[in-house]
Amino acid sequence: MIDQGSYPNKYVVDTNIIIYTLAGVKAAVWAMKKLEDDDIEVYYSTIVEAELFSFHELTLEQKSKIRGILDIGEIVEVDSNVALKAAKLRAISKKDHNRKLKLPDAIVAATALLLAAVLVTRNVEDFKHLRRHGLHLYNPFEQR
């Protein structure tokens, strides 16, 4: 189910969806194909870009495929607004939910919130407590 609220045409894609797409996993490939629609705005955090390119044995072909997927959308820099929102989300996660939110996840969630976009991720468990704080989630693996 798409938990898209009032902004169904803006999506921030998490690292795991791209990894599954590169591996040819049907649910992720299907989701990424749907996001290529002209009416949909796709975003990635620079943290996603860093995570994808940090694998130490990437071939030139793999790097090219990653870049091709990232070219579907727009890379969003981690600026002060994103950093402060991520810090707030980490604090809220610990204080209100007794959960430790990893910094990369907080940055991705902050990016989605600041863009008023749906976060596309398979790792819903890492983010579901943030629904109370306005985060909307879409897990393409729950669609099939």
Automatic annotation (TrEMBL):
Entries under PANTHER family matching the protein: RIBONUCLEASE VAPC2 (PTHR33653)
Keywords: Endonuclease, Hydrolase, Magnesium, Metal-binding, Nuclease, Toxin-antitoxin system
EC number(s) given by UniProt: 3.1.-.-
Gene3D superfamilies tied to this protein: 5'-nuclease (3.40.50.1010)
UniProt keyword Magnesium, yes or no: yes
Native source organism of the sequence: Neomoorella humiferrea
Protein name (Swiss-Prot/TrEMBL): tRNA(fMet)-specific endonuclease VapC
UniProt xrefs under InterPro entries: PIN-like_dom_sf, PIN_dom, Type_II_TA_system_RNase
Start and end residues of each PIN domain: 9-128
Superkingdom assignment: Bacteria
Family under the similarity heading: Belongs to the PINc/VapC protein family.
Essential cofactor(s): Mg(2+)
GO MF annotation terms: endonuclease activity; hydrolase activity; metal ion binding
Gene encoding the protein: vapC_3
Pfam families: PIN (PF01850)
